[in-house]
Amino acid sequence: MPELADNESAGNVAADIVIVGGGPVGSALALALRDCGLRIVLLEARAAGNGDARPLALSYGSRLILERLGVWPALAATATPIRNIHVSQRGGFGRVALAAAEAGFPELGYVVDHGRVAQALTQAVAATSVQCQTGARVMATHGGDPARVEYEWADERRELTASLVAIADGGTSGAENTKTIDYQQCAVTARVVSERPHNNIAYERFTTHGPLALLPDGDAWALVWTTTPDHAQQLCAMVPENFLMELRAAFGGRTGGFTAVTGRAAYPLRRRRAQPSADHIVLIGNAAQTLHPVAGQGFNLGLRDAWELGEQIVASNPDTLGSRAWLDAYQKHRRVDRSAGLGFTHALVELFSNDLLPLRLARGTGLALLGCMPPLKNFLVRRMTFGVRG
Ligand SMILES: Cc1cc2nc3c(=O)[nH]c(=O)nc-3n(C[C@H](O)[C@H](O)[C@H](O)COP(=O)(O)OP(=O)(O)OC[C@H]3O[C@@H](n4cnc5c(N)ncnc54)[C@H](O)[C@@H]3O)c2cc1C
Fold it and tell me: What is the mean pLDDT of residues 30-43?
């Protein structure tokens, strides 16, 4: 991987594009630009891989993008296919079953952990001419032509200039135009083993505390259990036997009993949307929008952000990169997909977080009706697979 040489990184270096953040979305953008002939610099705060074991449900559409980026072969061996999805509410009637065969796809999606996706993308970027600087924490970005990026590396303050700065830092920088809703919920993730095999079925179960997802993961399940912050803390601290009993009580008996749990972690949940206000700066992935993990949409949406930004850059005259008109075109192109992703997940959280009887009945009726309408189910599956084109 070409890193910035010492004499370059100490000075004021001009690049065509600086990518801030080498997580899965920033790395995907770097890969999408690998052959475009522009000088790309990627700055990543971490010195080494992230080891984040949160499960990612990748849509079939994301698989197609990862294939085009050349990283799917590195993930395929560890990705567990999802062939069916069951959606239901605990303590209420109504259920929807989605099937890959019915929707006309080979699979509905795949489960891989975040660390593995990030690692596969990072390794692929390392084999390109993109210049990567790890251990480089960006402290500030300034719009303008050129845009400026201030960062710290090995205790030194440095600066880069670029025609375009793509911020893919997961939302850690305080963008100016940001709207945040704190869900007052945490997601507890873990790997659990059950008595019965998963048969490549993913379950999304709405409980009184929040949605609980069990995703097929190798010979076990990846769990994403949304609950209150206090309850999440207790779930992470309790002895495995008690955890497994609580899980069984919350999820029900479809998988038989649960017999083992490893790798519990808790993630606070928020909804966040940010708009860049300066010229020559664009936000992608979680930096642009952070979603509730219900329905597993965040990375899939961020990957489409990166892919479509890459396509626009490749098709553009380099002299126009990052101008107001250029940024407006990108924003316009991504607006509908982003709004649909944010709106859909937020609506699910709102609709299913209230346990009033009339609402429970209405939800049950809605699920039951959806279950009987194959065209509507297929429409939903296609939206979750490919997003919405702007
Ligand atoms: C519990 C949970 C389950 C989820 N499940 C799913 C799912 O099933 N499917 C799905 O599609 N999505 C899912 N998501 C969402 C998904 O994890 C995110 O959308 C995705 O990780 C966003 O990727 P990103 O690259 O934008 O940000 P990140 O993954 O946060 O990466 C950001 C990178 O930027 C670096 N960085 C941060 N600040 C700086 C800085 N100042 N300077 C330089 N580098 C910096 C970080 O070190 C990191 O490497 C889930 C989220 C949670 C919390």
Answer: 96
Strand pairing of 201-206 and 84-89? parallel
Looking at domain 57-113+179-270, what is its CATH homologous superfamily?
A: D-Amino Acid Oxidase, subunit A, domain 2 (3.30.9.10)
Taking alpha carbons only, the member of 341, 269, 332, 255 closest to residue 301 is 341
- State the pTM of this model: 0.94
Supply the residue whose CA is at minimum distance from atom 41 of ligand 1: 138
Q: Is the distance from CB of 139 to CB of 157 less than 8 angstroms?
A: yes
Q: Say if ligand 1 is within 6 A of residue 45 CB.
A: yes
Query: What is the distance in angstroms between the CA of the first residue and the CA of the last residue of the chain?
Result: 35
Kindly report the average pLDDT of the chain as a whole number.
90
Q: Is the pLDDT higher at 48 or at 151? A: 151
Cα dihedral 256/259/263/268 (nearest 10):
40
Q: CATH number for the 6-51+116-178+271-349 domain, one of 3.90.550.10, 3.40.47.10, 3.50.50.60, 1.10.4160.10? A: 3.50.50.60
Coil vs helix vs strand at 229? helix
- Cβ 121 under 6 angstroms from ligand 1: no
Ligand 1 close to Cβ of residue 119 (< 6 A): no
Which residue, chain included where needed, has tokens 């440095």? 158
